[in-house]
Amino acid sequence: MSEERPGYPVGVATGIGSWPGTDPREAAATVIGELEALPHLVELPARGVGADMIGRSGALLVDIAIDLSTTGYRLVPHVGSVHRGAADHLRRDLDALEEAWERAGLVGSGRVIKLQSAGPLTLGAELELTGGKRVLTDRGALRDIADSLAEGMRVHAAEVERRLGARAVVQFDEPQLPAVLGGTLRGRSAFDSVAALPEPEVAHLLEHVFATVDRPVALHCCAPGIPWKMLRGLKSGRSGIAAVSFDAPLLTAADLDGVGELIEAGVTLMLGLVPTTLDGRAPAWREVADVALKLVDRLGFARGVLAERVLVTPRCGLSGADLSWARGALRLCRDVATALAEEPERL
């Protein structure tokens, strides 16, 4: 067993994953410049097929290939142009990140870098089998996808660490997790149903992936109905969850107990606070920080927990933002994170 690794940084800002535009060099330089404490390897979905979250995740799969069907990405027996294109996007993004890392003088610094992928449940929900059904409908295929993704992310993280001289943390995006547990996913046709997966089975699959990746893992979900209790149960030593990422303004009263239990269990919260689109003027840092302050007040925690257990991120959907506001959103995240980390009790 490898030595114990530190967890996610706290009191800092980071991004979710996607970014507007098509230029990986510009994106890498911006993210490293604005998110000095925890930059991430961005996704640029505006480039098209293979550059979105599912295409990027497909490029990480080991011994499994993807192609494009009329309804989405599909598993195929052999690597073709779509899979090669997704892998090429990933290589260009990593090369651009390495160049920007070198220009910033960060090689060998041991700085932390965040890597993202769709999680195994969302990947199983979005990828199709050869016959057109979701992978999620075939338990064996779902396990194969989870194994392949876990190994692919482990190898990817090791390569990034080697090339940058950095320490990698991992984020799995699971927007379909509530639908997988609730059985609300529709089949690809009127004759195709997708049954709910039992929570223990889902938890076991996630723990297996986390353990294989062997790095601090965050789970990101921007959908309503986040299974807080299950996520809290995933914190089980090295295979446990280090952080949970969500859009804070979307929380309801029904979510509060679950969020509080995560804090009590020692899980870091990645709060999506900064809007990704503007309706008029840009918010001031105090307006954004107030969302976090009111949350911990409602939970009954001292505000000092914001310095000990919280990161600040944009909300979901930054890839659809104007590029100038995307940069502004990262700066605002950084300003809010600094304020919450320094003297939250005085805010």
Describe the structure using short key phrases.
347 residues; TIM Barrel; two-stranded antiparallel ribbon; 12 helices; 8 strands; 44% helix; 12% strand
Folded structure, characterized:
By secondary structure, the chain is α/β, with parallel strands linked by helices. It has one domain: TIM Barrel, CATH 3.20.20.210. The chain is built from twelve helices and eight strands. The chain has helices at residues 24-34, 53-60, 81-103, 120-126, 139-164, 177-182, 199-213, 228-233, 256-264, 285-299, 305-309, 323-342; strands spanning 65-68, 73-76, 112-118, 167-173, 217-220, 243-247, 268-274, 310-314. A six-stranded parallel β-sheet has the order 3-4-5-6-7-8. β6 (243-247), α9 (256-264) and β7 form a beta-alpha-beta unit. α2 (53-60) crosses α3 (81-103) and α5 (139-164) runs parallel beside α7 (199-213). 47% of the residues are buried. The model has no long low-confidence stretch (mean pLDDT 94). Residues 14-338 form the Cobalamin-independent methionine synthase MetE C-terminal/archaeal domain. This is Methionine synthase. InterPro entries: Met_Synth_C/arc (IPR002629), UROD/MetE-like_sf (IPR038071). GO terms for molecular function: 5-methyltetrahydropteroyltriglutamate-homocysteine S-methyltransferase activity; zinc ion binding.
